[in-house]
Design goal:
seven-stranded antiparallel beta sheet; 3 helices; three-stranded antiparallel beta sheet; 177 residues; 38% strand; mainly beta; 14 strands
């Protein structure tokens, strides 16, 4: 497992959720308006403003286990199968003294070994990406959807329906740079 470096912005620090994170945001950045007609991904099932960042996998990673790491320290708040994601883990953390929930979507559910309410340290492996186009990813391509929602409520939505609703989310890339 490669060691990941925490990257800081001011006094907030989050770690890369996946090795070479900055190279992977090539299709769906935060806030992009998506519909089946204009999506960079085909076929597209969803519409709205992307409430997270998609970290794509590289060609040579399709058959490999790709580890996903916690971006912050906090407790595992949820792990389950969810429509649109397949396996999903949600972590409760504080980032820049603000309560947030972090959604890690499209994981192999069986790879999330922590129990609910168990501590997950920053940079600790939280799971492995699910196999593309399988039930592990709810039929989606192999990638990580990372969403950071403000507050303690768990919200699994991958898309906000209005720009105002998008304000409840934080662009993870602003914290990685």
């Amino acid at each position: 497992t490669p060691a990941l470096n925490p990257l800081s912005l001011g006094n907030g620090v989050i770690s890369e959720p996946i090795a070479r994170a900055l190279e992977r945001v090539t299709k769906k950045p935060f806030g992009i308006k998506i519909s089946p007609q204009n999506s960079p991904v085909s076929p597209e099932r969803f519409s709205g403003y992307h409430a997270g960042v998609d970290f794509e996998t590289f060609f040579d990673e399709q058959k490999k286990d790709i580890p996903i790491f916690a971006v912050c320290s906090g407790k595992l708040a949820m792990k389950k199968y969810a429509s649109g994601y397949g396996g999903v883990a949600v972590q409760s953390c504080q980032i820049e003294n603000q309560d947030v929930t972090v959604v890690y979507g499209h994981l192999r559910l069986s790879s999330i070994t922590k129990r609910l309410n168990e501590a997950v340290d920053e940079s600790e492996q939280i799971g492995i990406l699910g196999s593309g186009y399988s039930s592990e990813t709810d039929g989606e391509r192999k990638h990580l959807h990372l969403g950071i929602h403000k507050g303690k409520n768990i919200v699994l939505l991958g898309y906000a329906q209005t720009p105002k609703d998008l304000n409840q989310w934080i662009d993870p890339m602003t914290l990685l740079k």
